[in-house]
Every structure is written in structure tokens, then in C-alpha cells.
């Protein structure tokens, strides 16, 4: 079950078809299957619903344990026999509608009316804190923590021991482990930039994941880390994130990584361990970046990168190719003079 958002299920498969305005004839034994939750392909289990919209996820689809899957007609063949396909025209729009039924509060959590002054909570005697601090519901804070001025720990936040939260920080829907430093002005756990463009009205889809920041991390000033949509956004142990970095929903960043200022991550990419990224680089969505990769400042990464790669430029290419192309351009300019 989701740790922070209330699940309004279960719903049987017949109800789910009704939510989607689908007229599909299914055997009674299938229509009455109780669906308890909505998850991605890799984490879904029996009596749970998943979705499959892109052939790039064929391997995950073939091994999913979900009881049913919202998908396209040409992709249904990749699902196991134990998973009932629900064929739709627009997978992402359909899964968004179903997720809203299970987790309606995940779309409307921008304002937390439950927060109270820290002086009115049990934390006042156990942590060090500045002025004008507010705490929401379902919050846990460990030992020896410090919270700066004007910060808000909104609903659904767990903070481990020996953490430092700076001033003007906003946290929600996040699990912060031990010895983590979050510097001034960071915003962590807000919903991601996920919606479907529509000529009449853009349709936002729910974000029911959370942000997980592992031990000994540092998150810089003004950094923004969005919570996951179906899965979680994860920052691995000992990773340092510089100022003004944006990490979109569902990203998985490995251990011992260093990300310099103004780097931007689109959604659903994964980074291995010991990755170093220079300032103002951009990482496209749904990419796999290997271990020990180095990405030069200002680069635009558009494709997967293997372990130990060193790249630079836009689009990012190997350092050797980048320097060779740069030399060629400089030589050409010199000849024109």
C-alpha cells in the first residue's frame, strides 16, 4: 500500500472499465477481480493494476505480476498470460483517470491546512529549531535534528537522525534518512510536472510516489526534487546535489554522485554510482546512465551512457570526439581569417 496517500480502493475490474467508459465483454470471473492498487510494471503484484505504453518496457511487461494492465492493442502480446490486458486508445490518460480514483488526494495536496507551529507539537523539546516553523500531519523527526527559520515540514514526512534542514525549506511526501543536509530554499516532495496536453484543457495526472533521500546526502540551496508518479524519486547514499538543481519525478540517482549547479533532469532517468555532472548540463527523460560516468558542464545528454563514459557537448559525445570537433571548428575559423 502507498505509505502516504489514502487508497480509496479496492475496485473490481468491472468498475474500472466503467471509470474508463469501456464496453468490453469479460467473463464474470475476470470482471469481479478485485484490484487493490495501481503500480508500475516492476512493482505491481497480484490483484494490482499496471500500465504498459511503450515497447521500450517490453522486458518489464513480460515479467509483471500484475493481474491486469492498461495497454495498447499492439503491446498486449508482450504481457504474461496471468495479466489481463485492458486495451485503450491512450494509456497514460487512462491510467491517470484510474489513479485519481484510487488516490484522489494526490492531486490536491498543494495546500496543507493541517500545519501548526512547532511549539504546539511534541518535537519542540527534541530538536533545535529557528523561528516560524510549521509541522503537518504524519511527520516524524529523529534525534539531534536542526531546522532553520521559516521552514515548513508538511504532511507525510519522515526525517532520520542528525539531519539539518535549512531556512525557507518546504518538505512533503518524503523519506529523509540519517545525516542529511538540506540547504536553504530547497523544495522537496511536490508533485511533478506531469500532464497531458489537450487543446481544450491540459489534464494533470496524479503523483502517488514519494522522494527518498538516503544517508549522508546534501541537497543544495534552491534545489527542487519532485516526488514520483507511479514509482519513487530516489537519491542514493553520499550523493551531493548543488544549488539550483531540478530533479523531476521518478529519477533514480545512485550513490556517491556529484551534481553541480543548475543541472536539470527530465523524468524517469536512472544514474549509476559515482556519476559526476558539471554545471548547467541537461539529462533527458527515460535514460540509463551507467556507473562512474562523467558529464561535462553545459552538456545535453540525449541517449543512454555506458559505465565509465566521459562525455561533453550538445548532443553529448565522448570527450575525445568533442575536443576533435572543437579543434576542427577552430582550425576552420583560423583559415577564414
Tell me about this structure:
This protein is α/β, with parallel strands linked by helices. It folds into two domains: 11-106, MurE/MurF, N-terminal domain (Udp-n-acetylmuramoylalanyl-d-glutamate--2,6- Diaminopimelate Ligase, Chain: A, domain 1), CATH 3.40.1390; 173-321, Hexapeptide repeat proteins (UDP N-Acetylglucosamine Acyltransferase, domain 1). Helices cover 14% and strands 27% of the residues. The chain has five helices and 37 strands. It has an eleven-stranded mixed sheet. It has a ten-stranded mixed sheet with strand order 7-9-12-15-18-23-26-29-32-35, with no helix packed on it. A hairpin with a 4-residue loop joins strand 36 (310-312) and strand 37 (317-318). The longest helix has 18 residues, at 319-336. The radius of gyration is 22 Å and the shape is flat. The protein starts with 10 loop residues before the first strand and ends with a helix. The mean pLDDT is 92.
